[in-house]
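Final report, closing paragraph on structural work. Over the funding period we assembled a curated collection of sequence-structure pairs, and we close with a single example.
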Amino acid sequence: LVLAAVLIAGLFAHSVGPGGGVPVSTVVLLAGVGLLLAKSSFRPLPWLPVPVALGALALACGVFGTGRGELPATLKQLVQIGEVTLVAVYLAQFGIRREVRAALVWWLGGLGLALLALPLAGGLAWLDLSPAKWGAFATLAAPFLVLLIGRKCPWAGILPGLLAGMAFPHAGPLLVWCAVVVFAGHACGRCRWPSLLIAAVALAVSLQPGRRDIWERLNPDFDELHPKRSVIEAGLALRSPCHLPLGAGLGQYRAAVNQLRAFGAGTPHPEDTKVPRDGNCQFLVTLVEAGPIGLAGLAGLLVAGLVVAWRREPGDTAAEFQERRTLAAALAGALGASLFALTFSRGIGIWLGLLLGLAFAPRRLPPLSRRLLVLLGCWGGIAGLLGLALLVNAAAGEQIWPSRANRLVAALYRPDVGGEGPRVVVFPDPLDGAANGTLTVEAETAFEVMPPFRVVQADGASGGAALAIPDGRGKGIGRATLNLTVPEPGRYLFFARVYWADGCGNSIGFRLGGHEVRLADEIYQRWHHIEARTAVELPAGTLQVQVVNLEDGVMVDYIGLRAAE
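Its predicted structure, as stored:
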């Protein structure tokens, strides 16, 4: 019953409590462990498998991108890592492992069938589940559903096949689901034909004329001229190790992607307004937040669990052997689901932690001293990493990006970074821009102003007016041009005074001759000064600056040049 409560609670992404920051799944997980501790004679100190401990340590390396201002978000993410790699693993070790495994077969198998039927009954909106997160839940449960079908009624496999083909809204999760089903069927040994039937029916239903758009969603291009916003974001994430070798910090993915926009990205189609909610790849998110070390730890943890679960242990009966292979198939599903969803997020992470706990659970618990050593080594090491990160980054201040630790490491292979890193991006905001050596021009003097660009009256702007792209008026369209006079040839840093509406409108681009500059940061609802990260070589004379519409909901007070040092 505790396992059932925890698994079902994982489907809820809602928060509870006065601050609304504690997920229902976390509350149920902790309550379940507390109940079993009170009623069980099980030794209270858990066994933290060494691969799980190493994976948790690697993921925690992302704290080196953390400043003091991001500490609350970092601690929240560390708690989430603890849920997956410690608390859920502990729950899976209660009682006799065979009984826990058998219970999971039934609960996950039944939930797998329910998950496939949920979209048809409108259950996704009721549970507040995004299609990506729902697809990940269904993929992790699929192998257990296949095992139950193979044991009880092989030809009933047509039912989940029909449900999957009609329910999956995206070809990516559907392909992963079919692959996992086939893998699970062959791994179980007695249900190969039902698994092939499930996959065949799912694919056949998805190919109906009215559902051909399911495959078009795999195309990385929105049209012939524009890549999809999700593809642009993935490209920025893949480039992050060049600037963030230690990661941007746990929980800082969105902020880091916004900062990385300044280094260039494609322009999405105006109708492609945002990346779908929870439509991220866990591997890319981990790469940005925890760097290559964290990515290696995550992938190594999942692969190690799959390998360990696949091996047959001495004394396993045929049924237990099938359950172990099913467990391996579920972990393979976790690898696949991580391509299109956040599997370490609240809810899904608890399911994944239970699977890891079963995969690594020993037949006999190691001695108390060894359990204590691994537990203290892992979480003591994580506490030490956090303390060291805050100490190294203490002098950086909140507005320095990347963190000082990242800049020190990047300087080893990028001499241009230097020991103290690049110039501060956001600096004190002189309203008139009349700092020494600067050349400015008011944005409202732009000519060739074509919609959605428009000149508006704006409180706080110099002269009381600004060039704006109103919110909701479209992205990637329109034009506005300004003239800047460059007194002499040389290297200049471009800057602008801007106002962002929110995280969906916090970037803008400028074309200066043959150069393109993109500005983005995370300061909202106030005017602030932002400067390009790299200098550009410019000739003397009149320079035409074209403003590029990357996102709506932005205003520009003035632009300018400053001689590079």
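Residues 418-436 have pLDDT under 50 and may be disordered. The first strand starts at residue 15 and ends at 16. We thank the funder for supporting this effort.
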